[in-house]
Specification:
Blueprint: H1 2-15, H2 23-29, H3 32-41
Length: about 40
């Protein structure tokens, strides 16, 4: 459930690159590092 929410967030941000977000901003908003950390905990 949590991983799916992180992925949804990342997908939404990626779709906004060039519209509302610059590529660098999207990189900072990406939750990939949280997904990796969460996977290590479980």
């Amino acid at each position: 459930m949590v991983l799916k929410e992180f992925q949804n967030h990342n997908d939404k941000i990626e779709n906004l690159v060039g519209k509302d977000f610059a590529p660098g901003t999207a990189e900072r908003y990406n939750c990939y590092y949280l997904v990796v950390y969460y996977q290590k905990l479980t």
